[in-house]
Amino acid sequence: MIKNYALGLIAFIALLGSCNNSSKTATAHQDTVTRASLNEPEEVQQISEVITRFVRAYLSQDNEKINSLIHPEHGLAIIYRPGVMDDFKLVDSFDIQNPVPESYPYTTFENDKTLTFEALPEFKCETDKWTKYGFSSDTTATSVTHLLDTIMKYQGEFNEAKYDEKTLERVSKLEGGSYRVILNPTDEHFLIFHVKQFEGSWYVTLLDRSYGNCDA
Length: 216
Known about the structure:
Organism: Sphingobacterium mizutaii NBRC 14946 = DSM 11724
Strand order of the largest sheet: 2-1-9-8-7-6-3
Strand content: 15-25%
Protein name: Beta-lactamase-inhibitor-like, PepSY-like
Number of domains: 1
Largest sheet: 7 strands, mixed
Number of helices: 5
Structural class: alpha+beta
Distance between the termini: 32 Å
Number of strands: 9
Order of helices and strands: HHHEEEEEEHHEEE
Radius of gyration: 18 Å
């Protein structure tokens, strides 16, 4: 009995460590369904516009301009790390004065980087440094993430979290087919988010406040 309990505890710790380590690497979980890459000049112009508009609005802490870039029906997913494991919150609107989580304010910083379309940088917890600095988005066909699905999986396994069909559908719409953007002019200052097109219009769908933080 004791032996079985010990083996179960060891397995739990190993899985928990795997979950935590996976959240500290920038290698995206690749989708089994290929996503179309953005190559047409008009597409590139459209995604560039929503990305740069959001960055300007966020760094100037302008709630009105930020919320104009959030889908009125689907809202925004915010990923954060309250402890060992990542979690997320779905919100209908964004408020600079009420950060998620409350202990982690939305801060501003200077940015002199220009948006480029290339492979995204990685943050190395071993050195607390990025592999490169800049302002980039990977719009290739394979740069697909499953961050929210992974969080729900581990929250369900370890915290017995339950998600209703409405949440599952909303999560799928917000992250599925989205494009990840990383603005990181320095090691200390960075902004990570996703954008996605809905019926011809582009919106910010996800804000990742966990990646790049290796405290846990």
